[in-house]
Amino acid sequence: MRDDAILLLSCPDRPGLVAEISNFIHRNRGNIVALDEHVDAGEDAVFFMRVAWDLRDFLIPRDALAAAVADLVRPFDPLEQQLHFTKDRPRLALFVSKASHCLYDLLARHESGELDVDIPLIVSNHETLRRGAERFGVPFHVFPITPATKATQEREELALLRDHGVDTVVLARYMQVLTDELVAALPATINIHHSFLPAFVGARPYRQAFERGVKVVGATSHYVTAQLDEGPIIAQDVMPVTHRDGVADLVRKGRDLEKTVLARAVWHHVRRRVLTHGRRTVVFD
Amino acid sequence: MRDDAILLLSCPDRPGLVAEISNFIHRNRGNIVALDEHVDAGEDAVFFMRVAWDLRDFLIPRDALAAAVADLVRPFDPLEQQLHFTKDRPRLALFVSKASHCLYDLLARHESGELDVDIPLIVSNHETLRRGAERFGVPFHVFPITPATKATQEREELALLRDHGVDTVVLARYMQVLTDELVAALPATINIHHSFLPAFVGARPYRQAFERGVKVVGATSHYVTAQLDEGPIIAQDVMPVTHRDGVADLVRKGRDLEKTVLARAVWHHVRRRVLTHGRRTVVFD
Amino acid sequence: MRDDAILLLSCPDRPGLVAEISNFIHRNRGNIVALDEHVDAGEDAVFFMRVAWDLRDFLIPRDALAAAVADLVRPFDPLEQQLHFTKDRPRLALFVSKASHCLYDLLARHESGELDVDIPLIVSNHETLRRGAERFGVPFHVFPITPATKATQEREELALLRDHGVDTVVLARYMQVLTDELVAALPATINIHHSFLPAFVGARPYRQAFERGVKVVGATSHYVTAQLDEGPIIAQDVMPVTHRDGVADLVRKGRDLEKTVLARAVWHHVRRRVLTHGRRTVVFD
Amino acid sequence: MRDDAILLLSCPDRPGLVAEISNFIHRNRGNIVALDEHVDAGEDAVFFMRVAWDLRDFLIPRDALAAAVADLVRPFDPLEQQLHFTKDRPRLALFVSKASHCLYDLLARHESGELDVDIPLIVSNHETLRRGAERFGVPFHVFPITPATKATQEREELALLRDHGVDTVVLARYMQVLTDELVAALPATINIHHSFLPAFVGARPYRQAFERGVKVVGATSHYVTAQLDEGPIIAQDVMPVTHRDGVADLVRKGRDLEKTVLARAVWHHVRRRVLTHGRRTVVFD
Fold first, then answer.
1. Does residue B96 sit in helix, strand or coil?
2. What is the ipTM for the molecules in this complex?
3. Which of A40, A118, A229, A249 is catalytic?
4. CB distance D247–C41 less than 8 Å?
5. Are B111 and D105 a contacting pair at CB < 8 A?
6. pTM of the full predicted structure?
């Protein structure tokens, strides 16, 4: 198991940023194992960087590193900064409703070691997938939601996530709109929407796609923000369809997209490869 | 050169349609060289068929065939019927503005024989591409459009199309909205829109795509109807993009999609493989 | 549940085939629900057809249909003919070794009802996946293979398949070469090869792909014949890769291709949509 | 027009490379506008880097930069180093035979400004495309090749390329095998092969693909080396095909792949984004 530090940083662009950061690592005897940078071509030039370095001979002890990095980047007026250690495994909660394909796909990737995380719990608003979840040995918590109970249930869910030290929530076809309060209180939250956003926002996207007669259908995984289906997109993919595909075929084919696209977004997130900037993401792959 | 008849038909579904049509051809000594059928899974079951047969030993003479086919299909209450002969080459007019990529692409396919049609003229609202068009030996007609002149110019264009026996108009990045009057008077008209419809309707779709932060961009070729960007889609395709792609990159990459998708739609149309039904198409490939 | 008959037929092409077959169905009061035909453009024109019709009002009883169809098609000198009833669920045996992704994917599709088949057993040459299989309630049979035991073990496997009425074997990353004797005795057998065949035949295709520096990797699902990796291809798909992808990344990304491509091939096969002709397949989708 | 320097470098990996190079640029008042690095995961860790910086305020004059960079990188034991200036436009020669699609595609991209290069000449072994080339105002030179004349003609071609200061040769469906002597003497040379290499090496790949019954066809653009079809791959792409596609359809569909893939490879090459290492390329996009 590697023992690397990963710094994710965005700040206004100016000369010398790469030199200063790589010097900091080098003079403290860190060996850079990956470095990616990007300058966004928008109105204000924004600099994005991901740098990972080996901590074996690094002079700054792990528990002093956050402060040292903060000192380093403070003059850059950072928009966002994250410091991660590969030894700290991400802790994920999966939220599901009745559809099993994304759940099984993530659990199978977890079991095989492809997804190098802990999954301490699954949350659902239905009993449907309890057996599937428990088969894989993951505790399954049901919080039925009605308009009357929604606020209380969400508070319970939040408490449970905190108890389990969850740092990432994955909405794996969770068919309940979250309240703004919950969205604001959650850690990083990743959703899968079953269309190629921004086409076919909202419910029943495959029916909409069928009626519009499109020749390609898609799926979109994005961070959850207060604006439904408007969060920064992490991954998208599409597949061709023809007039032979009825709504049921689109749903069936779409499931393959959904599980693959969600898994890809989760993978990039837990490898600490994603920075956001407004409605855009930088995904260093 | 083959001498085939092609029948495109849509009608309410009922038992025996394939048998009746194939019997008609068979008993008149036609050999079916291609037969495709489709029943649409919508609320009303609609039957679509494309059948092509060799006319060499066919008993019904060419000039009596339209009437015979009309007699055959009348009891089916057809929604749409088209009878074509492969010996009649489609006659296309290309409409362009300033961007050359779709124009050159279609002209090169035409010159190489891939696109087996006649292109008697090119129409533009600008002089920009005159030299490009004339290089390929195709007459180039300019109709500058202002709000004041639009109606008159469109009538001139229409007269020109009729003079040249044009049966298909291709809007190859023609950046003028057609009036409803022109749309109603035109023969089959195919447009290319530089986005994955229904996402990013209207102007500047690549800028919209950039700002939304999508990870895939697309292009859509559709028949033109009175509703802008709402016509039945014939072909769509997409390509992945990343945060590294600025608006200029999306425009550059998008050109490859636009020319390929438009050419594919034109190819299917002139091979008489497309039927429409509301906002949907059946493309027999 | 629909009660349809499905006829798959290939024979030398000649005029009137569609008319004769559709007449047979129509005059016996069958309603054609799907009809696809294809004439292969090879040296000898071969006619392929798939036709499905509703048996509700059909005049010929189910147990007399095979004989009636045999009488119908005999004059066509059929190369291949298959008659299926949608009420007869296909019975699949899955063969696996140590990799779980294809197994879990197929079992999850089965459990959700997407794959409308029976899976009476799983066969493996290792104990590794026993727990995964038994979680889904499917009996798991282990036949360790050594050069000395191979012939005996294969005979045991074959007997087991017969006892369970298996009509389709799926090699879901089964990492043992089958003997020619077993291949000859098996019912229809579908394999997944982890490369875009015919590139990278044989072992370690991802390492080969890495070393060759390809920019796209693929997966191939094919029927198993005596020639390893040479059977008729049912489905293929690919994904782009870059210099950033090491062998481990290719393996990881490839798993998504493998499970999707295998599932697609199995789906087409069990829907009775595939005919073979030499090393080629006709897949009516 | 930007005035940037671009350094492409590969060398054995060791700590501090990024810091040293970015310091060199920074302390000489260059502003880094793009920096990409990659460490190859093969047996020997190899470091690859592309860095571009703005020369406006740079302290080292342009004509002293090559020597300064050589001094900088010498201690790194470079495997390959290239220094380019964006103000120096690449000079391309296109080699063609009879097929026009890649030629027209490149000329149209050149005329529209997408491909920011000079194309001083076109070389062919046939007269066929003279008119097409001259339409675009590019001199067209024909060197008919027979076994007897091949060596002499190649020497003439080489002399012509040198006279025109050509630094990149593009084989745009040039259907003549180059002698080893010519390959050794040519500057960087890019070929398009009409298959997904390493599948279907050699002649008639679409016929081979048809006979093998593949469900995907591809195209590959690669640098030319003495081993035919074995050079480092720059770009590949594929498209799905079905049993409905005969050899002529594969050829037709393949042309779209060929022109797009070749254009993409040329674009990356002339933007100085490609490094090679054995049979692999690093393409910084």
1. strand
2. 0.93
3. A229
4. yes
5. no
6. 0.96
